[in-house]
């Protein structure tokens, strides 16, 4: 069995004798290649050689100094251990349970050796090449060394070429081939689509004379005043309801169920509403620009006229939605004011009817007039009573008054007094059939005050109704078309070159992410 080949160098000793010393300056790659060749030549000692080389490689990584290696070699010679190199000496000492760097062992070498061996050499030497106890050691020739290096270089180049070829194969299969398929579809199979673009804006009516204060007045006339309505219109145009309405009016499903369309774009003859809605979302693109308040819409179809028709119809749907939104808002604002006005008007009529009923029941138009009449009659009667009383006193002042003149005058005074008392009772007290004028006046006053209050409330309700009407008119929304739909004369989609490049970038990115993930997982598993 051929022993493992070792590399040696010629060392000149102190006595002038040339000896072969194991070369420790070889690289780990050279030792690994030599070890591989030894394993191929000596299959029976593979395990032993592999273990020894692994231990030596581990010792090399410890970073031992030259002095420590020389001490280990001398200690191995002292214990009769045959070592082929300084690192092998360390390995053999440790295998026999001896610590080569223990202080006590180093002192024993110094005491026993005295700093020099039997031959007078100052430094420990390696085992001579001709020692019969060592295995066969052949000095590797320069051409053999160069040949081994060339073989290693060729092997590395071959492995690199193989890895590069595998990389090209994977790129061709996972990136180039899908990109070619996508390009073939876009350039050959894809059905041309004509896109019609339009733009419209939702505006708010301006109040007369710049009415409207507060934040609402500041935002009126800007895009922020109608942003909510614009978002609502955008959401509706992208909804299933708009798609179903468009299909009902212009056969959206039938247009895209044509057998001449490509399989990816074509709808099945019995396609469901969900499938049609997914296609609708792809073909109808609506965007809202909050800075300008403009809604931009792009509708695609296989025919330019159909595309323009779809776009005009969707704008009509948007106008209906805007009208419904503003109409509902106006009705909600007017309803409360109108109900308040109608209620105030009804109460005013009831109060007026109450006044009329009191006037009819008491036969009194105005209590002030009645009181004035009664007071004037009482005043005139009291004047007559005063005159008669004075006349009666003159008659009674005579010693012998004439009874024929006194008695009629007394009866007249009594009648005047009764009449005045009766008139006064009409002001404060009523007869058995009638109520007093004071009560009639108080009830009429209350009814007239209620009537005046109802008139005032009616005026306020009328003013509120007018204010609500003005505010409702201010809330009116209008849809103004800035860019009208015009049928294109050239197909807009598919953009074959841009889509092909995009497909290449997507597949390349996916491959790169998958490769990085696989490399990270492989490294984690191997570590």
């Amino acid at each position: 069995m051929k022993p493992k080949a070792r590399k040696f160098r010629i060392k000149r000793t102190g006595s002038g004798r040339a000896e072969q010393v194991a070369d420790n300056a070889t690289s780990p790659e050279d030792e690994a290649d030599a070890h591989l060749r030894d394993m191929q030549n000596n299959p029976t000692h593979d395990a032993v050689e592999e273990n020894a080389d692994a231990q030596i490689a581990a010792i090399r990584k410890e970073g031992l100094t030259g002095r420590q290696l020389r001490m280990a070699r001398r200690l191995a010679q002292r214990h009769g251990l045959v070592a082929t190199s300084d690192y092998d000496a360390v390995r053999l000492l440790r295998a026999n349970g001896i610590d080569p760097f223990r202080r006590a062992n180093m002192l024993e070498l110094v005491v026993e050796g005295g700093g020099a061996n039997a031959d007078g050499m100052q430094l420990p030497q390696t085992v001579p090449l001709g020692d019969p106890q060592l295995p066969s050691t052949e000095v590797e020739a320069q051409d053999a060394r160069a040949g081994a290096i060339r073989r290693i270089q060729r092997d590395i180049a071959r492995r690199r070429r193989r890895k590069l070829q595998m990389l090209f194969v994977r790129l061709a299969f996972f990136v180039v081939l899908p990109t070619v398929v996508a390009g073939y579809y876009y350039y050959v199979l894809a059905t041309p689509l004509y896109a019609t673009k339009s733009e419209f804006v939702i505006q708010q009516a301006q109040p007369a004379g710049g009415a409207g204060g507060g934040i609402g007045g500041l935002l009126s006339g800007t895009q922020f005043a109608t942003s909510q309505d614009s978002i609502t219109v955008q959401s509706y145009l992208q909804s299933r309801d708009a798609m179903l309405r468009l299909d009902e009016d212009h056969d959206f499903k039938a247009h895209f169920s044509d057998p001449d369309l490509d399989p990816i774009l074509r709808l099945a003859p019995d396609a469901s509403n969900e499938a049609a809605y997914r296609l609708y979302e792809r073909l109808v693109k609506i965007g809202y620009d909050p800075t300008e308040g403009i809604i931009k819409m792009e509708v695609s179809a296989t025919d330019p006229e159909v595309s323009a028709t779809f776009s005009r119809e969707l704008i009509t749907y948007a106008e209906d939605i805007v009208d419904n939104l503003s109409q509902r808002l106006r009705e909600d604002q007017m309803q409360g004011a109108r109900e308040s006005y109608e209620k105030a008007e009804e109460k005013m009529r009831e109060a007026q009817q109450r006044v009329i009923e009191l006037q009819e029941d008491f036969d009194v138009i105005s209590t002030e007039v009645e009181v004035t009449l009664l007071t004037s009659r009482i005043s005139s009667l009291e004047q007559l009573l005063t005159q008669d009383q004075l006349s009666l006193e003159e008659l009674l002042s005579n010693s012998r008054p004439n009874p024929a003149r006194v008695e009629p005058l007394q009866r007249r005074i009594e009648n005047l007094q009764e009449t005045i008392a009766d008139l006064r009772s009409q002001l404060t007290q009523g007869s058995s059939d009638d109520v007093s004028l004071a009560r009639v006046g108080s009830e009429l006053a209350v009814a007239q005050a209620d009537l005046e209050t109802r008139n005032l409330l009616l005026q306020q309700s009328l003013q509120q109704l007018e204010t609500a009407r003005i505010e409702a008119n201010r809330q009116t929304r209008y849809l103004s078309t800035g860019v009208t739909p015009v049928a294109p004369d050239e197909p807009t989609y598919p953009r074959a070159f841009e889509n092909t490049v995009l497909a290449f970038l997507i597949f390349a990115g996916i491959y790169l992410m998958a490769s990085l993930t696989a490399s990270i997982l492989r490294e984690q598993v191997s570590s």
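Residues 304-362 form the longest helix (59 residues). The radius of gyration is 61 Å.
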